[in-house]
Every structure is written in C-alpha cells, then in structure tokens.
Design brief:
Elements (H helix, E strand, L loop, with lengths): L1 H27 L13 H21 L1 E2 L2 H4 L15 E2 L9 H12 L9 H8 L2 H4 L2 H18 L13 H12 L14
Antiparallel strand pairs: 1-2
Helix pairs in contact: 1-2, 1-7, 1-8, 2-4, 4-5, 4-7
Length: about 190
C-alpha cells in the first residue's frame, strides 16, 4: 500500500504548501502583485494534478483485483477458491477517512452536483465540505492509518517525510513572477 500511496500523499502536501505560501506572500505584500496567484495558469494545473492523486489513492485503496485464474474471464468465477479475489487491498484493515475520501473522489469526478446520486455525497456537498475540508490533512490521516496498521502487524514502518526541494520552489517562483506588477524589478529571487 505504501509503495502506491506515498507519492500521492507527498504530491498533495507539497501542492497545499505551494498554494499556502503563495497566499501568504500575496496577503502580506499586496503592492507587489498585480493579480491573484490563483489566476496564473500553473495553479489549475497543480489543482488538477492534486485532484488526480485523490482519485488515484481511492482507486488503489478501495479498488478490487481478480486472481490470476479469474482475470482471464474478467469476472470472479463461482468456483474460485482464492480468498482475496475481488476484494480491495484494504479488506480487513481499518483505515480512517476512506468514506470522506470517497466523497471527495465523487465530487472531483462529478463537478455538477446534479450528477451526484448518493445521498451521503449530496449531504457532503450541501455542508460545503468539498470546499472546506483540507484534503492533504485527510490524505495524511489515511497515510498515518496505514502506518499504524503496518506497526500493528509487526512491520517496521516510518511516517513519510515530504520534501520541498528545488522543483517545488521553482513552481512557486514561477507562480509569483506571473503575478508581479510590471514596474517591480525582475531581479527578485525567491530561492
């Protein structure tokens, strides 16, 4: 599970940090910027990538897989004796936050609210949790839950250490440069 989820968790946390720093800098020095940071072309691309990671994590944790024999036919056979066939990878493991992650996945996949057919996700949207929840915190809690399950099973596990390196600072630098007032000196370096 960790192999397939750690990168997605790190991507979401770094996305949240980039937007948080951009928001903080634009609020503290509004005279430097001619437009909001979220109107730059990079922010929707980052948001789309983060949304993709939400869908990916949920699909991996709750998706089911067929055994080798059933895979050939495309569905579970009545004679299949494989215990894990057609069960999610998290079957039998208690992981916090999967229901909320499912709601976020449904909202991302169906941006028009009339498409949402589950009563639980409609309540979720009506409570505006789709906009108010901090998705990186939700995914971090799921990550911690997976680590707790590993430790409970006797496997040595450590919590992910997200990295904010030169590529991430370059993205932040590009976002902020696209917002600078034309009269502001271009020799400003954020690195």
């Amino acid at each position: 599970m960790r192999i397939c989820t750690d990168t997605s968790v790190e991507t979401l946390i770094v996305y949240w940090l980039i937007l948080g720093i951009a928001d903080h800098l634009s609020a503290k020095a509004p005279g430097l910027f001619s437009r909001p940071y979220y109107n730059t072309p990079l922010v929707p691309m980052l948001r789309g990538h983060a949304d993709e990671q939400i869908v990916r994590i949920y699909a991996f944790l709750r998706g089911s897989a067929l055994c080798k024999i059933c895979r050939a036919t495309g569905k579970k056979q009545k004679t299949c004796a494989e215990a894990r066939c057609e069960k999610p990878i998290t079957h039998g493991i208690s992981i916090r936050g999967l229901d909320d992650l499912k709601n976020h996945r449904d909202v991302i996949g169906h941006p028009l609210t009339w498409q949402l057919d589950r009563a639980g996700v409609r309540k979720f949207v009506e409570a505006k949790r789709d906009r108010r929840d901090v998705r990186p915190a939700l995914v971090w809690d799921i990550h911690r839950s997976i680590v707790d399950a590993q430790v409970a099973a006797g496997v040595s596990a450590s919590v992910l250490n997200p990295k904010f390196g030169p590529y991430q600072t370059q993205v932040l630098d590009s976002i902020l440069r696209l917002c600078l007032r034309p009269a502001f000196p271009q020799y400003l370096t954020l690195r």
